[in-house]
Specification:
Keywords: Membrane, Transmembrane, Transmembrane helix. By secondary structure, the protein is mainly α. It has two domains: about 10-260, Up-down Bundle (Rhopdopsin 7-helix transmembrane proteins), CATH 1.20.1070; about 265-309. It is about 85% helix and about 0% strand. The chain is built from nine helices and no strands. It has helices spanning about 10-40, 50-80, 90-125, 130-155, 160-190, 205-215, 215-230, 235-260, 260-309. The radius of gyration is 29 Å and the shape is globular.
């Protein structure tokens, strides 16, 4: 059955876009802070490929947010009071803006997933079968999503039915890939990763660390968007508005995980320091009775000599 495009009301369309933009700008600030932290901590020590990867991620996030701000200006300022604002785009210019924004979102998400795939490959001790399967699923989802974004950029509302079909084909792959990536990463983190948590960390701290190291927030947003598209098609403006936050959540999770290496090293140093202190204490405790025994043994000959005299 052909997918039907449901048009929201003006409050639904513009309200969702405004809220999504506010969250996008907030997350942009958080990602920028993480990028600055990375530059200060690892900018001169990490390999050139990783530094180029971070630079590319930051460029994608900023480009996406700038294109979205241009689109919001067009919607809220240029076309203020226009009753046709419920449509995603009514001109070639808007088609290109929306299409470019969708392409940047899709590319940023895939770019972030590449890091987690590589990280899973290392965590799983180079398990080719797991990483290759997840890579195929996520690449297929990226191809379909990219085709959907390109279709809208070139055809606009005229090609909305084709775009909707491509989106509906991509979302099952996205959900399967994201959920599998998060849960499998969590499994290997808990099983093999040393110093993943501080020895004194409470349950809440451990949960926060695990959530961002597995990109769980981005996975949750993807699932919510999928539910809105399939179950509540009348709210079709909400998923497209909140997909911008999905890209920033992937970027923030990647940068938080990269910067969290400092905390792991500190925890490892603490662990080694505590172990060394414990060993030193045990050695001193064992030496004390021995030294006391030697002192007693040395005092006895002196005492005997005095008795002989």
């Amino acid at each position: 059955m052909a997918a039907q495009l449901s048009l929201p009301t003006i409050p639904e369309a513009l309200g969702a876009r405004l809220i999504g933009t506010g969250l996008d700008v907030l997350l942009l600030g958080l990602v920028s802070n993480q990028v600055c932290t990375y530059a200060a901590e690892y900018g001169s020590t990490d390999g050139v490929y990783l530094r180029l990867y971070v630079a590319g991620l930051a460029s994608l996030v900023w480009a996406k947010s700038l294109v979205n701000l241009v689109y919001v200006w067009e919607k809220f300022i240029t076309r203020f009071g226009d009753p046709t604002n419920v449509l995603p785009a009514i001109s070639t210019y808007e088609n290109r803006l929306v299409g470019s924004l969708a392409i940047l979102v899709v590319t940023t998400v895939c770019y972030g997933q590449l890091y987690y795939i590589y990280r899973l490959y290392s965590l799983s001790r180079k398990n080719v079968y797991i990483t290759a399967t997840l890579t195929l699923i996520l690449v297929a989802a990226f191809v379909l999503s990219f085709a959907s974004a390109t279709s809208f950029a070139t055809l606009g509302v005229v090609g909305a039915q084709r775009t909707s079909k491509l989106v509906r084909a991509a979302y099952p792959l996205i959900i399967i890939g994201d959920i599998s990536l998060s849960f499998i990463t969590a499994y290997f983190l808990l099983r093999f990763r040393q110093n993943a948590f501080a020895a004194t960390a409470n349950k809440l701290t451990r949960l926060i660390v695990l959530v961002f190291q597995t990109a769980a927030p981005a996975t949750i947003i993807a699932v919510v968007d999928c539910v809105l598209i399939y179950v509540l098609p009348s709210l079709s403006a909400i998923p497209s508005s909140f997909l911008m936050t999905l890209a920033n959540l992937w970027a923030f999770s990647v940068m938080w995980t990269l910067n969290e290496r400092n905390d792991r090293r500190a925890r490892a140093a603490d662990g080694h320091g505590q172990a060394a202190t414990a060993v030193h204490t045990m050695v001193n405790a064992n030496r004390a009775p021995t030294q006391k025994g030697h002192a007693v043994a040395e005092s006895r000959p002196s005492h005997n000599r005095e008795e002989k005299r």
